Each structure stands twice: as C-alpha cells, then as structure tokens.
Amino acid sequence: MSTVTAYLKGKPTAVLIVLPLVLFALLQLFPALDTSASSVSRYIRLIQFYVGSLTGVLALIAALFAGTTLGAKTNSRALFITLAFTAISTLLLVSSAAIPDLLISELNNQFFIWSLNFSFPAAAFLFALASLPWRPATEARLVARRHFLLLGGVILFVLYVAIAFSYPAILDTLGNSRYAVQSTLAVVTLISLLIAIRRSRALIRHSGSRIERSLVITFILLAEAQICLAFSQPGRLSWFLYHVPTLAALIVALRAMLSRMERSPELKLTHYFAALASIAIFGISLVIGEVGKHWLTLGSGRSSIIPLALVQGFLSFLVLFLIVSRLNRLVVERTLALQQEQYLRSELIQLIVHDLKSPLSVIKGGINLLARARLGPLTETQTRLLTNLEQSGDDILQMINDLLDVERMEVGVLKLQVGIVEPETLLHECVNDSQIIASTYKQNLTISHPVLPRIQVDKSLLRRVLNNLLTNALKFTPEGGQIHVAAAALGDYLLISVADNGPGVPPADRKRIFEKFTQVRGTERRGAGLGLTFCKMAIEAHGGTITVADSDSGGALFEIVLPQRQAPEANALPQEQALDAGRLAGTLYPENEVGNR
C-alpha cells in the first residue's frame, strides 16, 4: 500500500483518484441524494452520448499511440495494452451510439447497457495479459501473429453485435440476472487490474518508467469506474459517475504517451499533431453538430447554418494554430537543448583530449631521443622498433587533432584562416613528406598536374586533408603498390585526387565512410573513423566537395573539388561542372606516371 501511496504524491493526482470514490461513497451512504440522473437534467441522454463518444475517441487515440510509443511490434506488453485500449474504445463508442431513442430507435436499452458493462472487463482482461511474464518464444509468436489477435477480437465483436440485433432476448435474459452477471464481471475486472498494477509496480522499481506510473493511475481509475457501474442502479447519479474516472484514466494515459513522444529523440510531429488535433476537432464537431441540429429543427435555414460553418472553421483553425505553435515551441526548445549538449560535449572532449596530448608529447620526445641514439648506440632491431613506435605516436597525435577539429567544426567553433595558396607547392610538400613511408614499404608514390592557379583556402586545414588522404592511401595500399596524386583546374574550381590500388571502398559504403567513427565492414579498409570525417567537414567548410569512387587500378579514388575563391557563404559546385569533374578525373593519370592501369 505504501508503494501505491508513493505514486499518488502530489495534490492533483490524489484529488483525481480520491474525488470519485468520495462522491460515490456519499451517494451510497445517503440514498436520497442518489436520484435519477434524468431528474437533474432533461438532456441526460445527450450528455451520456457526447461524453461517452468523447471517451471512446480518447481510448481510440490512446490505442493508436500506445502502439507507437510502447512498441507494439516488438513486445507483447505493448501489444496487449494497445488491444485493451482498442476494446474499451470500440465498446464505449457502440454503447454511446446505442443509447435508446437517440440515433438508432430500433435498439433496446439492454444493448446500450451491456456494451458498457462489457467494455471495462474486456480491457482489464487484456491489461492482465499484458502483465503476464510470457516466455521469449511465446512472446515472439504473439508479436508475429498480432494481426490474428486483432482479427479474433473483430470476430468476437461482430458476433456480439449480430446476437444483439438478431436475438435481443439473450440480452434481456442477462438483464434479468444483472446483479449476478455484473458482480462476476466486476470481480474479473478488479482482479485483472490488480494484476496489471502489480506488474507496473515491478517495472517502476526496475526502471522508474514514467509511463508505467501513469498506467498505475489509469488502472486505479478504471477500477473505480467499474465499481460505479457494478454497484449502483443504471440511470442513478452514482451510476452516471463512472464517466469521471473513465475520462480521467484516459487523459492520464494519453498525457503520458504524449510526454514520452515529446522526449523521444525521434519526435514525429505528424503523430503528435494528429493526436491533439483529432481530439480537439472531434469535440468541436460534436458541439457544432448539436447546435446545427437544433437550428435546423427551428427552421432557421441557410442564414444560420453558414455562420455556424464559419464558426466551426474558425475554431478548427484556432485549435490547429495552438497545436502547431506548441509543436514549434517544442522543436525550438529541443534544438536549443541539443546545441547546448553538443557544446558541453565538445568542451569535455577538448579538455580530455588536450590533457592526453601532454603525456603523448613526453612519450614522443623520449622515443625521439632514443631513435637518434642520443642516449647510446642502438641495434638495427631497436632502431626499427623505435621508428615504428614514433610513427604510432604520430598516428595517435593525428587522431587526437582530428577529433578536436571535428568537434570544433560540429559546434561552429573552428574558423577558417583563409589565405592565398600555391596548390602546386602544397601538393609537392605533402607528397615529399609521405615519400619516406612509401619507400619503406616499396610503394610507388607519384604526382602529376599542369600549371595550377592560386586558390584561397585555409592552408593548414588543406594540408591536413591531403596528409590524411595520403596516409589513408599508404595504409591500405599493399607493399609494392601504387599511389597517384593528380590535380587540374576546372573553370573556377580546382580538382585534386588521390588514387591507390588497395582494397577500395564498396559502393554501399561510399557515403557512410565519411561519417564519424564509421568503418567499412567486411574489407581491409578500416581505421579510427575520424580522418575522413575531418576531411569532409574541412572541404565542405571551404564550399567544396569530396567523394570516393573506384580507381582505374581497382583501389579507391578520393576526389576533392574546391572553389578557387572563397565566397561569404559556402559555394556549391554547378551540376554541369560536377559532371565535367567526373570526366576530367580520367585525364589525371597518364600511363607513364602510374604504371599498370
């Protein structure tokens, strides 16, 4: 009991649960107050119809969104909860439509009563099924065959309606033993809801789920509604009181689902909008429809109906505007929160990585002293080992710099330092820096280009991009393989390419390879997953593009297209020139430069 009390902390929730019970108890203790509801208002049937219809629609919307927010396609609990809301929605809507002398005059009072009486037990039984600890194999079969469960429910509902229309005497017989049948249904309902509450409590202790807390409140309120129906005379105020906990239960469930939808990383505005708009517009339509029926009965004609339609249109627009405004506020708030989170994450990463660079610099300095024989002579094996250690230290430092700069670019902190650059000089410097590694592994690293125009770029970033691409090519090119760097002017753009004859990049992975921490599966081309991300972000910051394709020798071909001059905003490569760039790529590899191609 103390656990349930913990769920009820907060005055609104406590009042929501206690108030219907207090009112019901007062009406039972003072029978003189528990008069016929029709004596209170002559419009009691209309009230019953509209409140029941609205409750049914709320249950239907809860069923639709229970499937999406809880995952009815993946687990049995969400599946049965969805079916439970569907059952109570269907029976409440049928009960409202079956109110005597309102919509269908042929129906008797028993169809209305028993549709209502069956709604809560059916939903409670399904809630209990949702709470059972199904075996994994059984749960998988239930989820896989969920359409058959829905079909079975439809068949049972059709049979019930067919019996009500074809054999109304059966419902009359149930009416004669109403107290016995209702008591049995009430016991089934209360036991089922207690099972559901117990399961939700266990889930709350395990995960602290907010939606499970709301379901506990929903189950308690539905139990109160069942008590009102089972232990009072139909038509009395105590019986009519079932509307209050039923509406409250569905509002609590819907609010929890919408709240979960708002917090979801994949907020679907269409689903959120559909939930709120359908409730509001349905309520407005019911009110306007009743007013319109009244005016038509008075014979007011078109002069009254046209203003009525205009009022409905205005109210619908107002509802839509308020909902869209709330959606916009949610999107703005989440965008700002995401930006703040990215900024804090970037600050943390930069702090951690910056602290890593200091000990790494000490390690590199020590290795450098040993490799230069400053601390004593070395054997050939020791020299080779220290060379490899020094190269590994450089690789780690490069990855750290890439990570820092990728984070800075993502939050817009890293700014371009644009200046006039001689691309020929920069290309040759990068190739010369890589020649030592290439010669170590007997790789043939070549370069070819015509006279190139000057370009406006951030020289430091472009140098790192080229070094990353060359390091990537050297890493994945086999011993004795070939790497070729080429460049050419293309109108107002400069095309730079790096080709190798390594394993290449599969077509399916050519977009993914530029994503952060992405590695190509099933091939030898694997790395830390940051270098190419940095290259893409740096090139796009210059208004250029970087792509990967197959080289003529079967390896990877990375192509960079850069505008020669930097505009205030990033430039986009015109489609015609992009096509020309693809055609030009084949001219950048003369036969006598690369060898076998």
Briefly summarize what is shown:
With about 600 residues, this protein is an alpha+beta fold.
Write the layout of secondary structure elements.
Blueprint: H1 2-7, H2 11-29, H3 37-40, H4 44-70, H5 76-97, H6 109-131, H7 136-144, H8 146-166, H9 168-176, H10 178-207, H11 210-230, H12 237-240, H13 243-263, H14 269-298, H15 302-371, H16 380-410, E1 418-421, H17 423-440, E2 444-448, E3 455-458, H18 459-476, E4 482-490, E5 493-500, H19 531-541, E6 545-550, E7 556-563, H20 575-585, H21 591-594
Parallel strand pairs: 2-4
Antiparallel strand pairs: 1-3, 4-5, 5-7, 6-7
Helix pairs in contact: 2-11, 4-5, 4-13, 4-14, 5-6, 6-10, 6-11, 8-9, 10-11, 11-13, 14-15, 15-16, 16-19, 17-18, 18-19
Description:
The longest helix has 70 residues, at 302-371. This protein has 21 helices and 7 strands. Helix 6 packs antiparallel against helix 11 (210-230). The protein has 597 residues and is an alpha+beta fold. It starts with a helix and ends with a helix. It is elongated and about 105 Å long. Strand 4 (482-490) and strand 5 form a beta hairpin. It folds into 3 domains: 2-264, Rhopdopsin 7-helix transmembrane proteins (Up-down Bundle), CATH 1.20.1070; 351-410; 418-594, Heat Shock Protein 90. The strands form 2 sheets. The chain has a 5-stranded mixed beta sheet with strand order 2-4-5-7-6. The protein has helices at 2-7, 11-29, 37-40, 44-70, 76-97, 109-131, 136-144, 146-166, 168-176, 178-207, 210-230, 237-240, 243-263, 269-298, 302-371, 380-410, 423-440, 459-476, 531-541, 575-585, 591-594, and strands at residues 418-421, 444-448, 455-458, 482-490, 493-500, 545-550, 556-563. Residues 6-10, 522-528 and 567-597 have low confidence and may be disordered.
